[in-house]
């Protein structure tokens, strides 16, 4: 009977944590640590915090002025097409030329497969795909 009660309590705790994370947009290291602690205890909290922190850093959206600049930037005369799918958090192929955003050198952009993408210049990782 006690095992059943513990299982039910754990299920309720996990469901409420997931609902809280969705409703308040808990992201990054705190969300990862909380989820890791529920699943794997103290070790899970440490791993979840690291993974969540990395994911949170990758998904941090650029400022609106950067997005507006990239939306309005003229397209190059030659189309850039790559076989790989453009994925947020993954680097663009080295064959793709990225152009720095003049007002904010923390960001660069490229137009790949007819999609405008904002990237982190040093790693070439895609931060946002503009629709």
TrEMBL record:
- InterPro entries xrefs: DUF1236
Give the signal peptide as a residue range, or say none if absent: 1-21
Q: Name one Pfam family in it.
A: DUF1236
This chain's source organism reads Rhizobium grahamii
What name is this protein filed under? Answer: DUF1236 domain-containing protein
Per UniProt, which keywords does this protein have? Signal
């Amino acid at each position: 009977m006690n095992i059943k009660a513990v299982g039910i309590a754990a299920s309720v705790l996990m469901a409420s944590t997931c609902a809280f994370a969705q409703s308040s947009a808990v992201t990054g290291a705190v969300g990862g640590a909380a989820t890791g602690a529920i699943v794997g205890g103290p070790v899970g909290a440490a791993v979840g915090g690291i993974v969540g922190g990395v994911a949170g850093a990758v998904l941090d959206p650029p400022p609106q002025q950067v997005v507006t600049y990239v939306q309005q930037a003229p397209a190059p005369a030659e189309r850039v097409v790559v076989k790989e799918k453009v994925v947020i958090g993954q680097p663009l192929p080295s064959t793709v030329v990225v152009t720095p955003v003049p007002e904010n050198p923390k960001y660069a952009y490229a137009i790949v497969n007819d999609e405008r993408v904002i990237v982190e210049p040093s790693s070439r990782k895609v931060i946002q795909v503009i629709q």
